[in-house]
Amino acid sequence: MMGCTDQTSEPGGERDAHAADAVFTSLLEDSAEELYEQAPCGYLSTLMDGTIAKINATLLDWLGLEGSQVVGRMRFTDLLTVGGKLYHETHFAPLLQMQGEVSGIALDLKAADGARLPVLVTSKVKTSQQGEPLLIRTTVFDARDRRAYEAELLRGRTAAEEARRQAEEARRQAEADRARLQEALAVLQQSLLPSALPEIPGLEAGSYYHTASPDLLGGDFYDLFALDGKRWAFFLGDVCGKGPQAAAATSLTRYTLRAAALHDPDPVSVLSTLNMVLHERYSSGDSRYCTAVFGVLEHGEDHVSVQLASGGHPAALVQRADGSAEFLPTPGGMLIGVLPRAEFTATRTELRPGDTLLLYTDGLTEARTGPERELYGEEALHAFTAAQPAAGPQALVTALTGLLAGFGDGLDDDTALLALGMPPVSAPAPDSET
Amino acid sequence: MTPLTITSRDAATGPVLEITGDLDYTSAPELRQLLDQLTLMAGQQLVLDLTGLAFCDSSGISALLAARSRAMEQDATVALAAVPANTARILRIVGLDRVFALYPDAAAAVARASVTDLTA
User: Fold this and answer.
1) How sure is the predictor about A284, in pLDDT bands with cuts at 50, 70 and 90?
2) Which residue range forms the structural domain that includes residue A170?
């Protein structure tokens, strides 16, 4: 049944096809010649030596040439730019010879008016039945849009690469700048502290400085230096704030203290001088204050006498050889630099073998500890110090450094420690440590 | 860490700033900025109510001192009210308990200022 249906429909189908062909033919007024000449691409045929034997109107139109100028007179390579000729010579022709066809090669034609015409060229060698090459048939497609697109892509890629290169360069530069800044900050920070504590006969000293942030200059400072043959001055303090301004104030503070001490080492008079200098320097606008302990050490027969004064600074602590510890209160000592005239309180003590005087900044006592972030506080520091064996300043500083490390995140401020004392009599010689 | 909030109200004797939260290195500039914009009349008293002050470091103390200089510039005075124990301890250490007028609360500060005003 199915076969019957197919057979009956066949004559009808053939009729339809013929009718359609007729319609198309009349519509297109088509001929092979017309199709060749007016094709939407260029056609040309050349002899094996490249002499142009036939070329269509489309291509002649693109080139702005007449058929008579070209056929039998020019070779295909004569239509190419210098670059195109070279490429044809080195790649196109050899490939064509080897493979018998080459497809989609980008070349540049040179029009009569000198304009450059980017094209895509496909060539195929026509051979005789014996396989002898007879001629080359070539189609030429206008590639102006495509080249423009490719050029755009290339430009885009170049721009992207350039942007990436610039970003990379900027990143490298920023890294270098940052390293330089860190280096400058480290140098500046070091200038606020002695590079090494001086060796003092019959006296041991230890110090430690903790920087909360490598990016922010801290305001903590300390120093120890000779006044004359038998007296030594020391100080430790904290300038409010952080950063370059604080560092500048710290520098001013440090050198004022040193200069004032050489002029008149009385601790109250030294702090009064500093107060005057800071108040004068910073009275307008950007105020800078500091707290500091300043003191003088003098060798006695079997002890070192300490005379010190404090301006708003946490009380110094003395660790005694007998395992006790005591604060040296200086009540009423004022923050330095706030008022034109400030009061400072002096106190004195004696250090005997095994006694250590500890100065610290509030980074230590204001550190927050434990899950409740409680202030560490002065009582805890007192208890900690009393519990340490009286093994001298360096041992105490080492113990406190360990304590600070244990605070971790809780230690969010700069912290300076300075410990001074007479070495314990029975202790093994500490000379190797200094 | 508690964020800093500052609310301002006017009492008969001058502005009262209620400072709540942490006054430290990161937040102190906020108080300084507010103080810069604050206009006081001669003889007025600026009260800093510290009832809600959770933490105050050296930058915070500096900001309190900035308030004092700001007030003095304009011939006004400054008082601290309800200073928390921790901060009071620091003020004592640095000798500022003798520089600032301290009151147990804002009402006492305002009352005291109006008495001074009457006697003056």
Assistant:
1) low
2) 148-191
Q: Are A55 and A75 contacting, i.e. CB atoms less than 8 angstroms apart?
A: no
Classify strands B45-49 and B14-23 as parallel, antiparallel or unpaired.
parallel
The CA distance from A321 to A329, in Å, is 20
Q: What's the token pair of residue A328?
A: 């040296």
Q: ipTM exceeding 0.95?
A: no
Contact A334 B95 (CB under 8 A): yes
CATH number at residue A110: 3.30.450.20
- Do residues B106 and A346 lie in contact, with contact meaning Cβ atoms separated by under 8 Å? no
Structure tokens at B16: 């009262």
* Chain-chain contact of A332 with B98 (C-beta, under 8 angstroms): yes
Determine, for residues B58 and A312 on separate chains, whether the beta-carbon distance falls below 8 Å: no
B25 contact A CB<8A: yes
Q: What are phi and psi of A122, to 5 degrees?
A: -125, 130
Return the number of CB contacts < 8 Å for A and B. 49
Show residues of chain B in contact with A291, CB under 8 Å. Answer: 93-94
- Say which residues have a Cβ less than 8 Å from residue A261's Cβ, sequence separation at least 6: A225, A227, A233, A270, A294, A296
**Choice between A203 and B114, residue whose per-residue pLDDT is larger:** A203
Residues of chain B neighbouring A366 (CB-CB closer than 8 A): 57
Kind and range of the H or E run holding B63: helix B58-73
In terms of domains, do A320 and A265 share one?
A: yes
Which residue in A291, A338, A413 is closest to B65 by CB distance? A338
CATH fold, domain B5-110, is Transcription Regulator spoIIAA (3.30.750)
Show residues of chain B in contact with A287, CB under 8 Å: 62, 65-66, 69
User: Rounded CA gap, B1 and A413, in Å?
Assistant: 15
pLDDT digits (tens, 9 = 90+) for A23-42: 766 666 667 888 889 888 99
Give the per-residue pLDDT at A8.
45
Q: Is the pTM of this model over 0.90?
A: no
How many helices (H) and strands (E) would you count in chain B? 4, 6
Measured CA to CA, the distance from residue B109 to residue B45 in angstroms comes to 9
Neighbours of A190 (CB within 10 A): 11
Q: Is B88 on the interface with A (CB under 8 A)?
A: no
Assess if residue A8 is contained within a domain. Answer: no
Chain B neighbors of A333, CB-CB under 8 A:
95
